[in-house]
Amino acid sequence: MQLGLHERRSGITCVDNYRARGRHKSKVVLVNLEADIASLVDRQAQADPKFQSTFLSARISAQAVREAWSEQKGYDGPVTDQSIDVA
């Protein structure tokens, strides 16, 4: 509010760094996140039984990955199941 009043008084639009606010993506903060999750999930990955797809699937929940990640890799931080899901 104070910024808007100042802009109105001075007639100059103040430029702020609005995009830098908020929580940063986990991939930016934790650079090795994707590689660490891949190393945990690769052990349980399996090919499509009908060989219709080249993708591998893993029957492991995001919560189980997060728990294994904190136990084996020693991380304890702001990573949620959602950020592990998309990584």
Q: Can you give keywords for this protein?
A:
87 residues; mainly alpha; two-stranded antiparallel ribbon; 5 helices; 45% helix; elongated
Overview of this structure, please?
There is one protein chain. By secondary structure, the chain is mainly α. Helices cover 45% and strands 7% of the residues. It is built from 5 helices and 2 strands. It has a two-stranded antiparallel sheet. Strand 1 and strand 2 form a beta hairpin. The chain is elongated. The mean pLDDT is 76.
**Portion in beta strands:** 5-15%
How many angstroms does the end-to-end distance come to? 38 Å
Q: What characteristic shape results from the CA principal axes?
A: elongated
- Main pleated-sheet profile: 2 strands, antiparallel
Specify Rg, calculated over alpha carbons.
Answer: 21 Å
Which structural class is indicated by helix and strand composition? mainly alpha
**Whole-number average pLDDT?**
76
Alpha plus pi helix count: 5
Order of strands, widest sheet: 1-2
Share in helix: 40-55%
Helix-strand pattern, N to C? HHHEEHH
Using DSSP, what is the number of strands?
2
Report the uncertain regions. none
Short description:
The chain has five helices and two strands; from the N terminus they run αααββαα. It has 87 residues and is mostly helical.
Helices and strands in order:
Blueprint: H1 2-10, H2 26-29, H3 33-41, E1 45-47, E2 56-58, H4 62-72, H5 81-86
